[in-house]
Amino acid sequence: MLTRQVRYLKIRDIIKSSIEQIRDISSTPLLDSELMAAKALDRDRLYVIIHMDEQLEEETAERIQAMVEERKNGRPLQYITGHQEFMGLDFYVSEGVLIPRPDTEVLVEKVIELASEFGSPKILDIGCGSGAISVSLAKYVESSKVWSLDISKRALEIGRKNATDNGVADRIEFIESDLFQKLEGTDIEFEIIVSNPPYIRRADIEDLHVQVKDYEPAGALDGGIDGLDFYRKIVERGRLYLISGGYMAFEVGHDQAAEVALIMENSSSFENISIYKDLPGIDRVVI
Ligand code: GLN
Q1: Closest residue (by CA) to atom 7 of ligand 1?
Q2: Which of the listed residues 199, 204, 234, 282 should we mutate to test ligand 1's pocket, taking the one with most ligand atoms within 8 A of CB?
Q3: Ligand 1 contact via 221 beta carbon (within 6 Å)
Q4: Which of 100, 149, 171, 210 could hold 74 in an S-S bridge, CB 3.0 to 4.6 Å?
Q5: 45: CA distance to ligand 1 center in Å?
Q6: How far is the C-alpha of 210 from the C-alpha of 74, rounded, in Å?
Q7: What is the ipTM of this complex?
Q8: Is 174 within 8 Å of 153 (Cβ atoms)?
Q9: pTM score
Q10: CB-based burial, 252-273: b 16+ in 10 Å, e otherwise
Q11: Which residue's CA is minimally distant from atom 2 of ligand 1?
């Protein structure tokens, strides 16, 4: 607990103390500390950096310390601050959705490229989570219309909020659906189907970093025994909802590209299968 001395703390002091407390759990303790201070002050990070000698009100210092405690226990910074940047856009995140990863940006960039082949493409995002992929596509693919499906009500709420906050709510349809369930019986067809499905092998979930394993939704990570369950299902059902000449685009785990390409090949509905790397050089996208 903080004592009354807290009243005399400067931003610098609490940042120093925060770094000491979270350095075991965080690989970026200074950045995290600055961002938590910024959140408590309702300012941006730059403000914190140039006001290190500002005296903190006791109440603000306590708010920062409460966030530091959460971070120390492993709660991801993004759930504490409620923000993650993705494709240059700001996304609200909280427990219940996976935090958007920079690895996924290459998938979005490839889909933006493909979408330019079509006038006003209809795009389907299976398992939309926070809406990072859907919202970015609605934003950057002119006159696209996006259908975003997720089994989780909470994810859809967050996705809707992100669509609204980024000004694309009128071009995204959020639908509660277990994979293609809600599309069954319709004759809707899409130019592009995109998905970053759960793909971690069940036995590997135990080995994930505590801040992933204990805080991010297992339902967004668990891809079954071999991690490939969702690729099989999406390839099998998804081809029914693709126009001929349409594209299916997946994010895959670091060692799954060849297997996912094979699943697509074996379904004999796909040709010209391509694999693309993410920035660190890992095969990350199969189209
Ligand atoms: N990239 C995520 C992770 O490694 C997993 C995302 C997923 O299963 N789609 O934590």
Answers
A1: 198
A2: 199
A3: yes
A4: 210
A5: 28
A6: 6
A7: 0.90
A8: no
A9: 0.94
A10: bbeebbeebbebbeeeeebeee
A11: 221
